[in-house]
Amino acid sequence: SDTIHIISRYVSELGYGASKKDALRITIKESGFGSGLSALTTSIGFFTLMTSTIRPIHNFGLFTGIAVLLAFVLSFTLLPAMLVLLHKPALREPRKHGHDWDGVLGRLFGGVLRQRRGIYVVAGLVLAASVGLSTRVRINSSLLDDLSKNDPVRQDFAFFDTHFAGVRPFELELKPVGNRTIYDPAVLREIEQVEGYLGRTYGLQFQASPVTLVKSMRKALHGGELTEYRLPTDSAELKPLVAKLKLFRKKPEFRALALPDGSAGRLTGRMADVGSIRADALNRDLRRYLRTQLDTTVLRTRLTGSSNLIDKNNENLTLNMIQGMAIDVLMVTLIVLALFRSWRMTLVVLVPNLLPILVVAGVMGLAGVNMKVSTSIIFTIAFGIAVDDTIHFISKLRLTMGHEPDLFQAVRRTYLLAGRAVVVTSLILVGGFCTLLFSSFDGTFYVGLLIGLTLIFGVVAELTLLPLLILDIFGRRKHLAEPAPPAIVPERV
Q1: What is the pTM of this model?
Q2: 2-135+311-474 belongs to CATH 1.10.1760.20
Q3: Segments of the chain assigned to CATH 1.20.1640.10
Q4: Could you report the per-residue pLDDT of 352-384, keeping only the tens digit for each?
């Protein structure tokens, strides 16, 4: 982004007749403040991802934020050195062609002013619709959510999910209380009771536990009769079964269900991949059942396993997303307040950048795109990137106000000078994110699509709402804030 703004400004200065030295000096002088500020706000957008409890997202935010700051440093060290060494490009005079950037942006600026009321009405309607549709967004994910429906791996999992016990694992820790072991008669009866609930109500299609070991041993000792697959009726019958089980206690298949000393056990199972919303409801009911129906003086239980961790991540998604966005917006607000000392300017910066975020949330709700780990980072990243162009525009306007006291003329001049870089930067970023559309992973696909849409909506808001908000909120005030020292800029507009 900084590179595009620097090159765009440099080329514009050359087109207006400045020498390479003067063009580069003016470019660095006028772009340094805005680029530094935009790099800071963009990196903050990524750094806020470090509040996530999901480690890959935390690391992504850390390293990407550092990369943004390094890119800014290189843009103002390596790039100017390269421009000095390269020959001056052959450029045509931009004002001589009506289809050039000045002509196009000039006509667009006039159209925005003429359609002022219509733009506000459309923005209000879009905002209301987006807020309503965004309420449809749900936090829901399944084990293979990121694979497309035609992916062979997902089709294989779907086959096992349908024709076998399912692909979603279930794990429950079993901990006897007091001096009891996992093979204690009372403990086994409690485990069998839990198994009954899991089979009838929870939806487990397959389950194994220490009860399975005891029942299987009893069945084996009674000639394999199916009717003998049950728990012993008394301790006298159970004792020899447990003695025989202890002969196999070090085998992996036995250790997977009970510790060799019998101090703890495990209930494992399989079920259909019902999604995180349904799984969360089932887990709530299970915890309620264990709390009210299980004798906790005999046996204590705890949900564990990979599926439980995935469900916990989903529970944290909303909190992490809200925290990240809140920190991002707060930091941008503090930065704008510190620099411009104006609440109205803060409103001008935030509105055109929050609106695209809400629109994309509405698009997600309309299209039925669920919130999950892969898509939870979209809003924070998109806001951090989208606010970049607004910072550049406001910074350029602040400089222009130093030698152009009339607000209307200052906004118009800024619109013509910064508009080209805003459009080009957004197109390049959209093009970069659009490459993710070719991914076979749905999560990656939606990240590219939704961030690309956010940037498109952002540049539209930048070129329509932003100038109108500045003109309507500040009127024809002489200064937006304490102006910067006058810059040496030749008259061009």
Answers
A1: 0.73
A2: no
A3: 2-135+311-474
A4: 888 888 998 899 889 888 887 777 778 877 787
